[in-house]
Prior knowledge:
The termini are far apart. This protein is mainly β. Helices cover 3% and strands 20% of the residues.
Amino acid sequence: MHTQYHRLKLASLDFSESAFKQTSLRSAHVEGINFNSSRIRNSDFSIANLNKSDFSKANIKSCNFFKSHMKKSLFVGSLISQSNMKDMRVWRSNFKHSCIEKTSFSNSDLDGSCFEDAQINECSFANTTLRESNFRDAKIGNTSFYGAHLDRCDLRGADLSQSNLESAYLRGCLYNSYTRLPITKAQAEESGMIFTY
Length: 197
């Protein structure tokens, strides 16, 4: 589907199990749209209002979400690759069981989001706010959290051993004996992280 929807005001439309290529929703108001199980390629969602939309089980590749608003959206079980998710407002969104690779969330607001059991590889969360987010049992490799605000996140069972936590804010983060970190236990305690069973 090659379509231009930019600057339109749409709501509660069902695009589930659809295929999109080079589609533009730039600056559109598309709150509550259903993209469940859709295949989306080379499409532009920048500066759009996508709040409360459903991208669960969607296959998203080479898409632009720059400065879009997507609070309380669903990405459960989605595959996201080679996409631009910088400067987004995505708080309280759900990425549980998702697979995310070669995608940048730099400078985005993801406070209160869920990445439980997600597979995240070669991504950037540099200078991103992720306060009170859930990363339980997530596998995170070759990913930068440089300067990210991870305060009060749940990192129990998460593997961040190959990630960059330099200058990240970790106060109040929960971790346990199954958590793998790129820093020592002493450094974790010094950063204000909380060990729990």
